[in-house]
Amino acid sequence: MAIDCQCIESLQMIRVCLIGADIAKEKALLESQSDIAVTVIAVGDLDQMLDDISHSRSHALVISDVGADLDADALCLHTYLRHPDIKTLIITETDADYARLDATGFSCKGFMLHEQRHAIVRAVKVIQDGEAWLSRKLVTAVLNQLASSALSQKRKPQLVKKA
Questions:
Q1: 87 - beta bridge partners?
Q2: 75 lies in which domain range?
Q3: For residue 100, which phi and psi values (nearest 5 degrees)?
Q4: What is the pLDDT of residue 155?
Q5: Is-contact 39 18, C-beta < 8 A?
Q6: Residue 163 lies in a domain
Q7: What CATH number has the domain bearing residue 140?
Q8: Is residue 158 part of a domain?
Q9: What is the H or E stretch that residue 61 is in?
Q10: Domain annotation covers residue 154
Q11: Residue 38 is assigned to a structural domain of this protein
């Protein structure tokens, strides 16, 4: 029985879609990896970008909102609604917070500061493996929000009167 090596290789290849105004460094770093295939999509109309993402059949979507009028959070959410299997990583200039994660519908798998973009290959592989690329501060904020929500939904204990 012959095994098609090309078929196995394409199964192991991580297909990454890049969107942003300043993505040359990320593109070069990702293309330097033999197990990553990169597609670049031009920033433009939301519907057109969503169609292009769909046609790219990506595993990971990397959106850079650095130096662009791009609502990365909305693009992340709409991508998730159309293709929940695509994992999104957002490169940004400011620390992500709970509100920003909420704006993505909690669909974003990672936020990376622009200064950390040298670790883009590692970040893509981490989210591809099913983990998140989030700062400790953001993880703490999410856990605090979950704990607060859980506590507010619990019934308060009532004293039992003895008869």
A1: 60
A2: 12-147
A3: -70, -40
A4: 62
A5: yes
A6: no
A7: 3.40.50.2300
A8: no
A9: strand 60-64
A10: no
A11: yes
- Please tell me the distance from the alpha carbon of residue 64 to that of residue 112, in angstroms, as a whole number: 9
Residue position matching structure tokens 């883009």: 120
Name the residue with tokens 């605090």.
144
- Could you report how far apart the first and last alpha carbons of the chain are, in Å? 80
CB of 19 closer than 8 Å to CB of 44: no
Alpha carbons within 13 angstroms on the beta-carbon side of residue 41 total 27
By CB neighbour count within 10 A (0-12 exposed, 13-18 middle, 19+ buried), where does 132 fall?
middle
Q: What is the pTM (predicted TM-score) of this model?
A: 0.81
Give how far the C-alpha of residue 38 lies from the chain's centroid of Cα atoms, to the nearest Å. 16
Neighbours of 107 (CB within 10 A): 18
Q: How many domains does the chain have?
A: 1
**Which tokens hold the place of 47?**
């519907």
112-134: pLDDT as tens digits: 999 999 999 999 999 999 999 98
Q: Cβ distance 124 to 89 under 8 Å?
A: yes
